[in-house]
Amino acid sequence: MNSSQRSQDFLARRAPRTRHCQGTARAIASECAKFKLHMWLSTLGLTGSKKKVHSTMNEVVTQEHIIDIHRGTWGVNFKKHAPPELREIWKFAMKEVRTPDVPISIRLHKAVWPKRSRNVPYHIHMQLSTKK
């Protein structure tokens, strides 16, 4: 008995009796194995039939974050805290959204500069929204 016959016997004994796997064990074992392989590959998207996948580019995904922006001002002059904190927000947003094009809204900009440059908040709540 060679290896292909052994594998067919194994499949015939182990294969569950479904609608596609009915009949004599030896005759149907290879067809059943092919069908199961085809179904498994189709779930992974590796079969020959290429269906058009609809794009989800119009779906907007919003994430809420609390950022510790105070760590960006460590070692910076007291009256120049706001610009490094804005840079820290921009770096965090770039990392989360995974794109270099990150605009900062005017509301967020005004929240960082509430009382001029020096009294900047340590943490800030922000929402990142991207088109997926």
Plain-language structure description:
The protein is 42% helix and 14% strand. The protein is built from 4 helices and 2 strands. The chain has a two-stranded antiparallel sheet with strand order 1-2. The mean pLDDT is 73.
Please give the share of residues in helix: 40-55%
Instruction: Write down the CATH topology of the largest domain.
Output: Ribosomal Protein L31e, Chain: W
Q: Which residue ranges are poorly predicted, with pLDDT under 50 across at least 5 consecutive positions?
A: none
Residue-averaged pLDDT: 73
Q: Specify Rg, calculated over alpha carbons.
A: 29 Å
Broad shape: elongated
> Could you say what the CATH architecture of the largest domain is?
Roll
Number of domain units: 2
Taken in chain order, the helices and strands follow as HHEHHE
- Taken as a percent bin, the fraction of beta residues is 5-15%
Q: Which strand order does the major sheet show?
A: 1-2
- Quaternary assembly: single chain
Q: Which class do the helix and strand fractions yield?
A: alpha+beta
CATH class of the largest domain: Alpha Beta
Number of strands: 2
Q: End-to-end distance, in Å?
A: 55 Å
Biggest beta-sheet profile:
2 strands, antiparallel
Output the number of helix runs.
4
The CATH superfamily of the largest domain is identified as Ribosomal protein L31
Brief descriptors of the model:
elongated; 132 residues; Ribosomal Protein L31e, Chain: W; 2 strands; single chain; alpha+beta; two-stranded antiparallel ribbon; 2 domains
